[in-house]
Automatic annotation (TrEMBL):
PANTHER family the UniProt entry points to: GB|AAF24581.1, GLYOXALASE-RELATED
Residues annotated as domain VOC: 2-113
Name of the protein: Glyoxalase/bleomycin resistance/dioxygenase family protein
Superkingdom classification of source: Bacteria
């Protein structure tokens, strides 16, 4: 079994896609406001519009993105309307994580590997 893609449901998919584009993701495919898919190395991240979701209204997944610079990405997300919550957590040799709510209230975690800290 292989992970194919992860998707969030959104009432305004195109607006939410703009948020993730501004954070650095690249759209690979879009079917209007129904389905927007971003490029990924091994699996895709997608946004499903109303009626496209297998579990309409579900909001219990947490998507984790690896970033090169955690502070810079948090600052950019905040400027784009994200709500940062909780404390940035240092996980020692693994790296650091921080959580945010995107503009449509999905929980997202940002991860910076320890080998990318202090650069």
């Amino acid at each position: 079994m292989k992970l194919k893609h992860i998707y969030l449901t959104a009432q305004e998919p195109e607006a939410l896609a703009g948020f993730y584009e501004a954070l650095g993701l690249t759209i690979r495919f879009a079917d209007g406001a129904k389905w927007i898919q971003f490029a990924g190395e091994k699996a895709a991240f997608c946004i499903a519009g109303p009626g496209e979701s297998a579990s309409e209204g579900a909001r219990n997944a947490v998507v984790v993105f690896e970033v090169d610079d955690l502070e810079l990405t948090l600052d950019r997300a905040r400027a784009l309307g994200a709500e940062i919550f909780g404390e940035m957590r240092d996980m020692g040799a693994h790296g650091r994580v921080a959580c945010l709510k995107d503009p449509q209230n999905n929980t997202i975690q940002l991860f910076q590997a320890s080998n990318k800290q202090g650069g």
